Amino acid sequence: IRDTVRRFVRERVLPEIGDWFDQAILPHELAKELAQLGLFGMHLDGYGLPGASSVAYGLTCMELEAGDSGVRSLVSVQGSLAMYAIWRWGSEEQKQRWLPPMHEGDAIGCFGLTEPDAGSDPGAMRTHARRDGSDWILNGTKMWITNGSISEVAVVWARTDEGQINGFLVERGMRGFSAPEIKKKLSLRASVTSELVLDDVRVPEESRFPEVSSLRGPLSCLNEARYGIVWGSVGAARACFEAALEYAKGRIVFEKPISAYQLTQQKLAEMALEVNRGALVALHLGRMKDAGKLRPEQVSLGKMGNVRGALDVCRTARSVLGGNGITLEYPVIRHMNNLESVLTYEGTHEVHTLVVGEALTGRDAFR
Known about the structure:
Low-confidence stretches: none
Oligomer: single chain
Radius of gyration: 21 Å
Number of strands: 11
Strand content: 15-25%
Largest sheet: 7 strands, mixed
């Protein structure tokens, strides 16, 4: 699986990704090509899904993000957020309707939890669901939604009059529903990021998740996506390390390659240490997940350390490349910019710090 995904990234993504990032596009046909590899929802089972191991899914995320965080985000949001939400919380009819076409790439999904004023505190969400006969009327705005404007279905979380948190499947074309794309990003440019605007959107009862009425629903999905980031960030770090190593061997300064200088070798050694540390943490967590022993705070610890470490590797690689490190002819500045978003999404570094802190001390520091 790792070799197949790595080959796809090298042959299909790497030759074009600099231009995609520069032009702020991600070709729509790429989703179908990723689906043909069986990557959408690959770690889920039933309904024609592959049921791959957590380690296999993690390796896939690592290889995809070695190409670009935007490509990995497309797969993560489709499989670990939208599909997982339906697989875990949806009715049998919802699963039968959506999971097979989403796996095949015939339907793209997104996940609407974050709002303009409710990111790290999802309990403060303002998106509202009001019962109207056998239907629900949804009003609100979601923000920073990957895949939003290309999705056929959006998993939208909303608060009811009773204060419950319900999940709804909002389909493209429903009256009052729109997904304007967010422009002028300097990070995750090769990724579709949108708002979700709900203006008196009428959703039938059969499109509501039947058995979840609290934040446990969306937070369980986020934990799935965070696990993929633990692996994916290592891929970005590895790509920058490899670029720096190759560059250092060929860049001549004062009549010898910079790889022969002690300061450069120190940088390369520290980068190699961090890439391998992060990969081993990801592998260990993946094996724990496959054994059914992985806890959310352990995923937080992995995301904290691996994303921060990946950023350190990218910034060090940039210094090795000098001026060339800021051009899109090399992957370094692109990965650096992307990781600034990865540091924040699926829980900020600060939030994960407090999750780990509570697990260590038994004291909730969020309030």
